[in-house]
Amino acid sequence: MPTQKNVLIVGAGLSGCTIARSLAEANVQCTVIDRRSHIAGNTFDFENQFGIKQHKYGPHLFHTSNHKVVEFLSRFTDWTPYKHKVKAQLADGKLVTLPINLETKEIVGADNCVEIFIRPYSEKMWGMPLESIDPQIINRVPMRDDLNEYYFPNDSFQALPAQGYTRMTEVMLDHSNISVHLETEFNHEMMTEFDHIFHSGSIDEFLKFKFGPLPYRSIKFHNVNMPVAQMYPVSVVNFTDHGKFTRVVEWKNLPKHGANETHTTLTFEEPCDYSQNNFERYYPVKDISGTYKKLYDRYKIFVSENHPNITFCGRLGLYAYLDMHQAVSSSLKLSDAWMQANLNER
Ligand SMILES: Cc1cc2nc3c(=O)[nH]c(=O)nc-3n(C[C@H](O)[C@H](O)[C@H](O)COP(=O)(O)OP(=O)(O)OC[C@H]3O[C@@H](n4cnc5c(N)ncnc54)[C@H](O)[C@@H]3O)c2cc1C
After folding, report:
1. Residues spanned by the domain of 207
2. Structural contact between residues 43 and 55, judged by C-beta atoms closer than 8 angstroms
């Protein structure tokens, strides 16, 4: 009988859970650690004192056309269908549809769209003038010539896990070959104890910022409970002013997120540098000249030359903005490749 491989997975987010589950099913012993006190990473959700479900790190809308990812996750959750709609609040308080569609253009004038919707939001979000932001990021904001109101018009599968993301990841980790240790920080001594490490944390932190820090944008979440049944017609409203908040989320407007008839919970999002938010890393910074991508590549090369037993993965480990389906897809590929190379009996 071949000896059972022993793998450490740093991070209990969607990437770590996907890798742990895939390896565990191939009879690999998986130890999952996370420095936070909960699993699910940034998808963590919970019910507040008003019976309203909140996503602690911003609203997470699952959308994809990747059937393999849907098939994989559907083993751990049922789904509540949900097609996301977003509104933007104009200076006079009026709400218009985002992404900009034909109706929105007619209301504000096509020539004004960049200054009203894109400049203030993007400058607050990235903390730099629009002209310095990588155009790839701006191009993620589509403009339409029809009346379609949906935020993700092209994805064939759009839904929320029926019992939430926390429950879904709990089921993913529920396997006899997986042990989970929360409030556990990775340390370099752990490297000797395992055959391999999948690390979904930051590569610069792992190398003690040897080549300098990789910057991130972060978000401060300001939660407000209001003694009214409902404030907005949709779950997300973007602000078009130059104030500090980019958007507000009204949680109960998401399906099965609470039916409280007297109270609603809102979360206002205030972007900031990660150093102003307890070093919570959310969005890798992409500047127009690609400086940070080059810095990341330098770290990546150093790791592959000096630490062949570590695979960096996930949103932080790859220093890439990954949606949930991309995090799952990329983690499935990484764990498959590792199993092909390391499990001879397969
Ligand atoms: C505000 C916001 C909104 C988003 N909305 C959407 C959305 O609507 N739809 C969508 O598809 N995607 C969305 N995403 C992206 C989604 O959050 C990611 O795709 C997903 O969380 C990636 O999972 P991950 O496991 O790679 O990373 P994470 O969820 O960040 O998990 C990494 C985990 O590793 C742990 N960790 C890191 N370093 C260490 C260490 N040294 N020791 C121990 N533990 C460590 C962290 O504590 C964390 O729990 C959003 C992201 C943000 C920030």
Report:
1. 6-80+163-213+287-342
2. yes
Ligand 1 environment, Cβ below 6 A: 10-16, 33-36, 41-43, 57-62, 185-186, 200-201, 219, 282, 314-316, 322-324, 327
Whether 40 is covered by a domain: the verdict is yes
pLDDT of residue 345: 57
For residue 135, the model assigns a pLDDT of 77
Asked whether 258 and 251 are in contact (CB, 8 A), the reply is yes
Q: Flag whether 282 is in a domain.
A: no
Last residue of a domain, one of 276, 302, 320: 276
Residue 22 has pLDDT above 90, yes or no: yes
> Can you tell me the distance from the alpha carbon of 298 to that of 296, in angstroms, rounded to the nearest whole number?
5
pLDDT given at position 2 = 64
Task: Over range 41-52, report the average pLDDT.
Answer: 98
Please name which of 44, 114, 59 lies closest in space to residue 234, comparing C-alpha atoms. 59
Preceding peptide of 233 cis, ω within 30°? no
pLDDT at residue 121 is higher than 80? yes
The verdict on 180 and 264 lying in the same domain is: no
Q: How far is the CA of 37 from the centre of ligand 1 (A)?
A: 14
Where is the domain boundary, 255, 276, 297? 276
271 and 313 in a single domain? The answer is no
Residues 30, 177, single domain; the answer is yes
Looking at the fold, whether 131 and 28 belong to one and the same domain comes out as no
Q: Are 206 and 199 in contact (CB under 8 A)?
A: yes
- The pick from 21, 315, 328, 330 for probing ligand 1's pocket by mutation, whose C-beta has the most ligand atoms within 8 angstroms, reads 315
Residue 134 confidence class, pLDDT cut points 50, 70, 90: confident
Query: Which whole number is the average pLDDT over 249-270?
Result: 96
